[in-house]
Amino acid sequence: MDVESLVSWSRAQFALTAMYHWLFVPLTLGLGIIMSLAETQYYRSGDNFWKKSAQFWQKLFGINFAIGVATGIILEFQFGTNWSNYSWFVGDIFGAPLAIEGILAFFMESTFIAVMFFGWGKVSKGFHLASSWLTIIGATISAVWILVANAWMQHPQGMVFNPETMRNEMSDFWAVALSPTAIVKFFHTVTSSWTLGSFFAVGVCVLYLLRKRNVEFARRNLKIIAPFGLIAALFTAFTGHGSAVDVAKNQPMKLAAMEAIYDSGKCTETGCTEDGSGVSLGIVGLLNPNKQLPDDGKPSHIFNIEAPRLLSYMVAGTGTHYVPGVVNILDGGYRLPDGKLALSTEEKMRRGRIAIDALNAFRAARKAGDSIAAEQHHTVLMENFPYYGYGYFTSKYETVPNIPLTYYSFRIMVGLGGLFLLFFLLLSWYAYRCSEKMVSTRWLLWTGVILTPLAWIASEAGWVVAEVGRQPWAIQNLLPLNAAISKIEASSVMITFALFFLLFTIMLVAEINIMRKAIKQGPEQH
């Protein structure tokens, strides 16, 4: 079995499924709020216009929801088919949030979504409104537990390793569920999904205005959508900052890749850089494509516009805070926030191999009935277990993620996020101050059309930063990908990759066509 090829194809298949799935999920979360806001207006005013608006958005929500569920189920099955060692090693922990998501959130969604779609005129207005809100609340709760599971992969905690079973077992459920990483990831992901859903709704409305169809529908709905999108974009920026601070604390290699920082110098008495001046934030730059290794001596950028000290200030609130670069993390020797010196990656690899050997020796001693030797090996194992995953690497460079992909994806996400914020600010002003002029303000309408697909690009870029920046770890600092893989043939993964690609593309084309027809029919045909 070619392990490298197997890992590459399994990663590609999982990335394919995840990125297709994420085309639908944020639209579900964002559009669900918009349809519920429209129905709230109907409940408060009794205006039949808002009832038709709510039914229109609900129809689009339902089309998208169905496709999102289908891709999500396939995604979760891949943990068992392609990543069975991962599932065995941490299934006791990782499986718990997924089980709660299925039992609590999915049943909640499926119960109230039926009332939402088929309960018009059959239940009271208040109960129907509650069902609409509970449907999207259920979808958001579903996102909570998925993101808790993902956050644990980024920053594992609340578990102990049991060498008897070769599994990590949960020791503190609340440490897993309420970790700072999970909290910031949830809020950033959900608010960015609201932004995307707002852009989809804006795209529909501005198309109507450009074609001078359903003009009243577009104008009145934009008075809800534009301020909601503005609030969502503001919260996305705020929570994105919190997420970056968490990355700086728990995943320094990811932050170094996001900023393409290779060498920040060493700690000194005056500060934690060579001159105590802090680390700059790269604003716009072009990476050197000829740089192959972090420490090959070649320049990292062809050009780079920086803001002095800003990165240090953003992650720690002080302009002299030390942010290690890739080379610094590989070589170690710099001072950590707790005062200890960072170990080099090669030292971590050495200790990881000690942990692996101690685990094998422990199991052999237990099998032979030698309890004294087993206890000695257990002690060595536990002392070195924090570096267990490093023992599977043969070179320190294997621990470095794809820097260009992470760097550019981060800038696409942040740059588009700033553009979205400015657009929603302008749109909100026009929606309330110049509503009658919006039909003739074609530059604003065309900007809305152009930015709508870019919302998906920004959203996907965010996940590229989160997941590619964590590589080569399946679980940060605990389990690398080459140890998490299933023992299957790479050829079988290649075949299923092609099948999934064909299936997902057909589903995407089908959704686009169904959505297009529903939008063309307009709110009058619900």
Notes on the protein architecture:
With 526 residues, this protein is mainly α. It has a domain at 179-460. Helix content is 70%, strand content 5%. The chain contains 16 helices and 6 strands. The strands form 3 sheets. The chain has a two-stranded antiparallel ribbon. Strand 5 and strand 6 (479-480) form a beta hairpin. Helix 3 (84-118) runs antiparallel to helix 4 (125-154). It starts with a helix and ends in a 5-residue tail after the last helix. The relative contact order is 0.13.
Radius of gyration: 25 Å
Approximately what portion of the residues adopt beta-strand conformation? 5-15%
Going across the biggest sheet, name each strand in turn.
1-2
Helix-strand category: mainly alpha
Order of helices and strands: HHHHEEHHHHEEHHHHHHEEHH
Q: Per the principal axes of the C-alpha atoms, what is the gross shape?
A: globular
Helix content: 55-70%
| Oligomeric state of this protein | single chain
Give a count of the beta strands, DSSP E runs of length 2 or more. Answer: 6
For the largest beta-sheet, the strand count, sense and barrel status come to: 2 strands, antiparallel
Average per-residue pLDDT, rounded, comes to: 91
Distance between the first and last residues' Cα: 54 Å
Low-confidence stretches: 268-275
Compute the number of helices: 16
